[in-house]
Amino acid sequence: MIITRRALATALSLTGLAAWAGLAPLQPIGAALAQDAAASMLAKPLSLPDMALGNAKAPVTVVEYASMTCLHCAAFEQNVLPMLRSKYIDSGKVRFVFREFPLEIKAAVASMLARCIAGDDAGKYFDAVEQLFKAQDQLIEHTMDTLKLIGKRQSDMSEEAVKACVTDQAALDKIKADAEFAFENLKVDVTPIFFINGEKVKGAMSFEEIDQKIRALLKR
User: What are phi and psi of 29, to 5 degrees?
Assistant: First the structure.
């Protein structure tokens, strides 16, 4: 799905977070930045700290922009990321960064819950993201019940704590600010989008495709 700035602002600016459930997904924009400019932009600090796996000094950095209600994002997390971790991330060759780019408010509140569960612990964050992607159908159809279930399962959060987390306007504003930065400066307009050492790749990637790009970079 492609989005516009106006649609993003509409989806992520609420008159009250109590009204978030069921809002529509976002719609289209923009063109790509040059690879070197993208790499520079990707290095800029954001409103929210990056959640990353792997060595911060790894020769290859993969940044994914994803939405928790995006089918292809879920497929990548479940089918490709485990192989990427095994071959490259755990060996220190690749640093993998996951950035939220919610296409609708249900995706935004799911990302907010993952942040609440994790605190500053990236491992807990990726565990929560994995569970949210596995429960994607239920997240879309029965959003609040699914959030409560995963909050309880992953971090023993009470229903009240989950509700407080996903109705936190300040947290939503940070996600919104980072998403706006991504589409204004990096021309992120679909999910997933990957930046591999600054090279922008739109859409779903198989392990074979990302493996080929990583191997080429490691040879340089």
Answer: -155, -155
Domains of the chain: 27-218 (3.40.30.10)
**What is this structure's pTM?**
0.86
Instruction: Considering only CA atoms, give the Rg of the chain.
Output: 17
CB atoms within 10 A of CB 43: 10
CA distance 178 to 175: 5
pLDDT tens-place values along the chain, 220 residues long = 556 656 666 566 544 454 544 433 333 333 334 577 888 889 888 999 999 999 999 999 999 999 999 999 999 999 999 999 999 999 999 999 999 999 999 999 999 999 999 999 999 999 999 999 999 999 999 999 999 999 999 999 999 999 999 999 999 999 999 999 999 999 999 999 999 999 999 999 999 999 999 999 999 8
**Residues 8 and 168 sit within 8 Å (Cβ to Cβ):** no
The contacts of residue 102 (CB under 8 Å, 6+ apart) are 11, 12, 67, 68, 69, 108, 110, 111, 175, 179
Nearest-angstrom CA–CA distance, 89 and 100: 20
Which contiguous run of DSSP H or E holds residue 35?
Answer: helix 35-42
